[in-house]
Amino acid sequence: MRRETDFTLRPYKHSDARAVVKVLNAAAQSIHIQRAVVDNVGNVRLIHYVPLTSKKVVVTTTQNKVVGYAYLADKEQHIIYEVGGAVHPDYWKKGIGTQLLTWAEKQAKSISSYAPSGVKTVLQTNLYKSEEDAIQLFVESGYTKIREWMHLAVELDKLPVVPPLPDNFHLREMDLEHDWDIVGSAMEEAFADHWGVISMSFSETVTTEEQMTNADIPEDETYSNTPGLCFLLMDKNHVAGGVLCNAKLVESANMGRVGSLFVRPGYRRQGAGRALMLMAFHAFWQQGVRRIITDTDANSFTGAPTFYTKLGMQEYRRELLFEKEIRPGKEVRRLSR
């Protein structure tokens, strides 16, 4: 029986990418998904977006075989962090998961020194409902389930029809290079009443290490928002809402994803969200994509699950969000209505 001392935890190297993807996908076989790929510039890409600047480690055997992997992402103003990764099934129950989680918590505590004084910091992880062994590890390590995410899909069987809009409204394709100045504020306003959003503004602390890392990592942007699949709903020259989609997915090559739908509060309950989604469906159809997926907070304050099901989308998977307090302090997130 192998002991924890038979394994070495070391920093991730770019050359580890293929070995790491094998570990991630082997661990995901029990839930019947492909969890990761190596992109065109050699980076590990997971089903959901993980910043390339995340801290990453691998666990290797005495023969230097990669059998475990973890990342630690600093998600929001050094207040919220995310840990993810996997251990190869052949090496489960050998303490590797605990070793990786201990590393992540140590990193999160270190990063907490950059968080605003007196503010609570937390470490989160997302696990699929069927990942029972991983859930047990996190629960035994002091993590609590705080949220559930619904994954929904629709199979298009005919060309979607975009409904007519009032005279002062029009839909247009988003310019992914030049529109962010007007889109950023609209997204902030739209998501201000969502669960977990930070309700206070703090000056952002960027470390020298982060600046150097950002400059050094090459990025394959084909996994980002896709030209021709992102749209804005305009009220004359004012952004009322938008939808951002991508067509190159890790989980499957023959489907598309609605990554973000946002509508400013003053424009809700007027058909804006429906028009944007149907515009996205229409564009996917024109590109030959028939299966469209998205995910949303199962307990959304805005009633998002009902909205998506009325568009014909059906739930096919659940994802659970677990969290552990890293540094005590004032809670600055919106956690209730």
Quick recap of the structure?
With 337 residues, the protein is α+β, with helices and mostly antiparallel strands. It has helices at 17-27, 96-111, 132-140, 180-190, 208-216, 272-286, 304-310; strands at 8-11, 36-38, 44-46, 55-60, 66-76, 80-87, 121-128, 144-155, 169-173, 231-235, 238-246, 255-263, 291-297, 314-327.
Can you lay out the helices and strands and say which pair or pack?
Layout: E1 8-11, H1 17-27, E2 36-38, E3 44-46, E4 55-60, E5 66-76, E6 80-87, H2 96-111, E7 121-128, H3 132-140, E8 144-155, E9 169-173, H4 180-190, H5 208-216, E10 231-235, E11 238-246, E12 255-263, H6 272-286, E13 291-297, H7 304-310, E14 314-327
Parallel strand pairs: 6-7, 12-13
Antiparallel strand pairs: 1-4, 2-3, 4-5, 5-6, 7-14, 8-13, 8-14, 9-10, 10-11, 11-12
Architecture overview:
The protein is an alpha+beta fold and 337 residues long. It has 2 domains: 4-142, 3-Layer(aba) Sandwich (Aminopeptidase), CATH 3.40.630.30; 151-216 and 223-317, Aminopeptidase (3-Layer(aba) Sandwich), CATH 3.40.630.30. It is 23% helix and 31% strand. It has 7 helices and 14 strands. The mean pLDDT is 93.
Index terms:
7 helices, two-stranded antiparallel ribbon, 337 residues, alpha+beta, 12-stranded mixed sheet, Aminopeptidase, globular, 23% helix
